[in-house]
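FIELD: query
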Amino acid sequence: MRTVLSAFGVAFAVALPGLAQGDVHADAAKAYRIETSQSPLKVKRGDKGQAKVTVVPRSDAHVSPDAPVSVTVSAGPALELPKQKLGRPDAKATEAKGVEFEVPFVGKQTGKDELHAQVVFFICTEKLCERQKRDVSLAVVVE
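FIELD: result
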């Protein structure tokens, strides 16, 4: 009986760090939110527009100022994207220790379209600093 209990104790001790690590990863996903410009964005055909994408950390977290951060954008035929990838030089630090990107676009042809952005950054808390990748979409109307 003692051998069975010892084996159970060892198995539990080995599994415990894995369980705790799962909580840490879940904590990272809850350590921030992504905010975007009001949707739908409106722009006249031929005019330039901007979409804002902001990573807003919880009060006990921050976006790493040293790690890579990027936004990769794509859109349908109604929009032209002068810059499809934005990086650290394009990011603005926020008061909340997050980052904000202003994604430029041009209304190419009238109609409804979507601007898709993949945001990659590192969110840090007292327990971790973990890479995050989030996809966001914004509706755009070209008049």
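FIELD: remark
Residues 2-29 form the longest helix (28 residues).
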